[in-house]
Design a protein that fits this description.
The protein is mainly beta. It has one domain: Roll (Hypothetical upf0131 protein ytfp), CATH 3.10.490.10. Helix content is 12%, strand content 36%. The strands form 2 sheets. Strands 1, 2, 3, 4 and 7 form a 5-stranded antiparallel sheet that branches. Strands 5-6 form a two-stranded antiparallel ribbon. A hairpin with a 4-residue loop joins strand 2 and strand 3. The longest helix is centred in the middle third of the chain and has 10 residues. The N and C termini lie far apart (34 Å). The mean pLDDT is 93.
């Protein structure tokens, strides 16, 4: 399991893979303070369809059988990070749907970095279907 992400006082990268992606229902580019796009990226894990949004279950270190999950990396200020926490329902309670984690990413055309990611709690995956292509936006287009 990945370590829980900590709250630094400076801007930091965040990996978004679902409704926060460009064109998504919660497009991060419409939020304030405005983020800075760093590039597209992918992480190892599995993406699940939760209805109106997806959930990412990260691969464990050394796990090779997980696929790629596609997303975008943005540099966000602490104020926007707090907005993202509210969107993802982060309260610190044991039953939260999402957990704050850190994951190593390498945005296309950029430098490798460690990014905040909101990982689905495995407790919320019962009966949920995986998204084989690992891309929420592609999946949405195919569903409609």
């Amino acid at each position: 399991m990945m370590p829980e992400a900590t709250r630094p006082g400076a801007a930091r990268p965040v990996f978004v893979y679902g409704t926060l992606r460009r064109g998504g229902s919660n497009d991060i580019n419409r939020l304030r303070p405005a983020p800075r796009f760093l590039g597209v990226a992918e992480v190892r894990g599995a993406l699940f369809d939760l209805g109106d949004y997806p959930g990412l279950l990260l691969a464990s270190p050394g796990e090779r059988d997980r696929g790629a999950v596609h997303g975008e990396v943005y540099l966000v200020a602490p104020g926007l990070e707090a907005v993202l926490d509210r969107i993802e329902g982060i309260t610190g309670a044991a039953g939260d749907e999402y957990l704050r984690r850190e994951v190593d990413v390498c945005p296309a055309g950029g430098s490798p970095c460690t990014a905040l990611v909101y990982e689905i709690s495995p407790l919320h995956l019962s009966g949920r279907q995986p998204i084989p292509e690992g891309d929420w936006m592609v999946h949405l287009a195919r569903r409609s």
